[in-house]
């Protein structure tokens, strides 16, 4: 008889997943969209929610269909691509970007407002980030405690604080929704769509997958059917929470301009907006929220990247990987939040379109026969334009790139990769038919997994 989890346990898993996605860095982008989009905020948020929230559940399901780990999913393109993509993904979600971004955001919102001497700001950042990352290491030491620590304790606490803040902003708004800024006067939906990249939640879904599967397996779930059911149910709980949160954060940003003016980043919006809503007590409230959400994200990311590198380099244990990744994150943190956001943008514009394309390919795999040529050609088409977008974001040959490739539809809006991806898909399909490639269908298994194959989630069936 298959073991089924009670609803309360599934709720705890959903809250654990919610807390992993809801990081301090995650909540700073919707307020910024709200301020900048003004009267166009809900159109912008429509696009934002697709990439920032909607694709997350699809990414989780795609992971189960694609092999249970991101390297197996990406391996349908090719082994070299799988290694390169996976390493870039895990390093970005770990020490290169997310851990430094999260730690910096926590400092900016929870600590910096209380620092009266700005002359020693860099020293205060270093002291705080060292303490925060040491705490991250301690909480990451044992991943089997994630459900209890994150889902049952930390998440409910910061959820109550956030709900209080959001309710106050609705009952006594800081002001009227402002006018849209220049970048949100046209192409608003696509602009919101690309801004959703910066939450990194779709990429995070790939990274957190291994931890999530371990958490479910530790509860005695072995049936593929039951694992999928738990994934979807917990994922829906997570999605509902994220949609409600991001819309609320956008509202806070959109209604804040009259009271605090336009700000450089979402961290400043939340910090100063909270003070307007609750006075000095609001500063402490948002500080507590950001601290708790920050630590959950840091723990999830550090644990995931260490678990991945232990998997590909078994001679170095999980706990030994925690230390060097933490040190790299600590060093980058001390460049400051604005510098971190600027440096990471090109990487996100490269990885996000590829991740979205992989999700679509996995879901449509059996419709096109799972042909390898389709995977290769589609990712090539997507990756080419994504690489050009990354170069432009890094201010490398921007004018020349626009002159040469500006004819591609949606290119100037940052979504030209959709067109080239579709072209690559069609070319790959033609090549596969001409070469009479064997199909590679995905069949979801329903039987109990053997213990030694607990991470195998699909069966790939070559059909000639």
Automatic annotation (TrEMBL):
Q: Where in the cell is it found?
A: Cell membrane
Does the entry feature the keyword Glycosyltransferase, yes or no?
A: no
Q: Give any Pfam family that matches.
A: Branch_AA_trans
Specify the protein's topology with respect to the membrane: Multi-pass membrane protein
Q: Entry's InterPro entries?
A: Brnchd-chn_aa_trnsp_Livcs
Which domain of life, per UniProt? Bacteria
Q: What are the entry keywords?
A: Amino-acid transport, Cell membrane, Membrane, Transmembrane, Transmembrane helix, Transport
List membrane-spanning regions: 7-29, 41-61, 81-99, 121-141, 153-171, 196-213, 234-254, 283-309, 321-337, 343-362, 374-392, 404-432
**Family named by the database record:** Belongs to the branched chain amino acid transporter family.
General function of this protein: Component of the transport system for branched-chain amino acids.
Protein name listed in UniProt: Branched-chain amino acid transport system carrier protein
Q: Which organism is it from?
A: Siminovitchia thermophila
């Amino acid at each position: 008889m298959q073991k089924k989890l009670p609803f309360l346990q599934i709720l705890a898993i959903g809250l654990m997943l919610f807390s992993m996605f809801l990081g301090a860095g995650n909540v700073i982008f919707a307020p910024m969209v709200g301020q900048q989009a003004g009267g166009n905020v809900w159109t912008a948020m429509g696009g934002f929610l697709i990439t920032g929230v909607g694709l997350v559940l699809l990414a989780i399901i795609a992971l189960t269909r694609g092999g249970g780990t991101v390297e197996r999913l990406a391996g349908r393109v090719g082994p070299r691509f799988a290694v390169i993509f996976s390493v870039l993904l895990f390093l970005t979600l770990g020490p290169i970007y997310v851990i430094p971004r999260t730690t910096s955001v926590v400092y900016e919102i929870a600590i910096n407002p209380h620092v009266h001497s700005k002359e020693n700001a860099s020293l205060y950042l270093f002291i705080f980030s060292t303490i925060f990352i040491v705490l991250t290491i301690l909480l990451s030491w044992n991943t089997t405690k994630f459900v209890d620590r994150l889902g049952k304790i930390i998440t409910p606490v910061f959820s109550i604080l956030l709900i209080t803040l959001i309710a106050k902003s609705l009952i006594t708004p800081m002001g009227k929704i402002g006018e849209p800024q220049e970048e949100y006067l046209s192409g608003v939906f696509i602009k919101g769509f690309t801004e959703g990249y910066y939450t990194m939640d779709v990429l995070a879904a790939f990274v957190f997958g291994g931890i999530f599967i371990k958490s479910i397996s530790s509860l005695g779930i072995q049936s593929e059917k039951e694992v999928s059911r738990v994934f979807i149910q917990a994922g829906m709980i997570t999605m509902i929470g994220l949609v409600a949160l991001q819309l609320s954060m956008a509202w806070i940003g959109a209604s804040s301009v009259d009271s605090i003016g336009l700000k450089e980043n979402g961290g400043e919006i939340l910090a100063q907006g909270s003070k307007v809503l609750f006075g000095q007590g609001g500063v402490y409230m948002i500080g507590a929220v950001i601290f708790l959400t920050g630590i959950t994200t840091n723990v999830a990311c550090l644990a995931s990247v260490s678990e991945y590198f232990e998997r590909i380099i078994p001679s170095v244990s999980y706990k030994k990987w925690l230390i060097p990744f933490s040190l790299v994150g600590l060093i980058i943190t001390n460049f400051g939040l604005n510098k971190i956001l600027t440096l990471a943008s090109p990487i996100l514009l490269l990885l996000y379109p590829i991740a979205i394309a992989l999700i679509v390919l996995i879901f449509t795999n059996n419709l096109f026969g799972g042909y390898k040529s389709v995977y290769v050609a589609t990712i090539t088409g997507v990756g080419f334009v994504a690489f050009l977008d990354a170069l432009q974001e890094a201010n490398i040959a921007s004018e020349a790139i626009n002159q040469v490739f500006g004819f591609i539809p949606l290119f100037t809006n940052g979504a030209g990769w959709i067109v080239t991806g579709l072209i690559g898909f069609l070319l790959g399909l033609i090549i596969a038919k001409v070469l009479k490639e064997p199909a590679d269908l995905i069949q979801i298994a329903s039987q109990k997994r053997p213990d030694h194959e607990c991470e195998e989630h699909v069966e790939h069936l070559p059909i000639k």
